[in-house]
Amino acid sequence: MTAAIDVQNVTVRYGDVLALDDATLQVDAGRVTGLIGMNGSGKSTLFKSIMGAVRPERGAVRIGGLTPAAARASGRVAYVPQSEDVDWAFPVSVRDVVMMGRYGRLGITRRAGSADRRAVEHALERVELADLGDRQIGALSGGQKKRAFVARSIAQDAETLLLDEPFAGVDQRSEATIVRLLRELASGGRTVLVSTHDLHALPDLADEAALLLRRVLFRGSVREALTPERLAQAFGLERSAPRTANNAECSETAERTHPTEQTGETA
Ligand SMILES: Nc1ncnc2c1ncn2[C@@H]1O[C@H](COP(=O)(O)OP(=O)(O)O)[C@@H](O)[C@H]1O
Ligand SMILES: [Mg+2]
């Protein structure tokens, strides 16, 4: 069986910076895969490579057997960018953002029809933003913004969803809503790849985990990924490894440790 997302030996450089070094990852359909790595480990670059937004110097990406360009053109892949990569001042309403998920289906001549509008309203309801459709996207809270982009993916009805740090700076309710939706989408056969540095959320969120540090160090079960040894390798820490899956149930916002904050930026 071909992997839903197949990243083969991808190397990406920005000038002198080697962002991905021979990264290989297969992601299966019907599962949520967590992509874990510290700041600067190449998570966003991996997503951009999968979307065809950066051109690898070596290696290849296929999404459902298609090139990134073909997968995008056919609307099969949806992408929720990290907040830093979005221009929140752009004057569009929440509903407009969600309607963008339908554009791939609209073609250049057809206008949004009632089926499109229904799909958009349904997606807004699923992310619990039905009341805020008219609001300017920049006027939402961090968690609401993320939910709006998740609604865009739902409206798009893509087979493959890529979410870059959807939990960064979001409230508990938004996180819980997004986790629940991603699990539902995976249960329905979608492929979900989501980056996070919130290790405590991982057991509830993901079926599989991949550890990234310019290349994929490990890919397998969440439990195996969260061993202190593997985390030390991924985060460059030999000590004070974050708590493992076994005691992750007791996570509370105030208690959360973010390994990236301990190690600082590498960029
Ligand atoms: N547009 C860019 N130009 C130059 N360097 C970049 C650019 N984007 C990312 N980088 C560098 O590439 C490395 C990987 O970055 P990134 O993929 O954003 O990692 P992550 O998402 O895991 O924080 C970092 O060292 C980062 O500074
Ligand atoms: Mg990033």
From TrEMBL:
Domain of life the protein comes from: Bacteria
Lipoprotein keyword on record: no
SMART domains membership: AAA
Entry-linked InterPro entries: AAA+_ATPase, ABC_transporter-like_ATP-bd, ABC_transporter-like_CS, Metal_Ion_Import_ABC, P-loop_NTPase
GO molecular function, one term: ATP binding
Domain ABC transporter span(s) in chain numbering: 5-239
Family matches, as PANTHER family: IRON TRANSPORT SYSTEM ATP-BINDING PROTEIN HI_0361-RELATED, METAL TRANSPORT SYSTEM ATP-BINDING PROTEIN TM_0124-RELATED
Protein name, entry field: ABC transporter
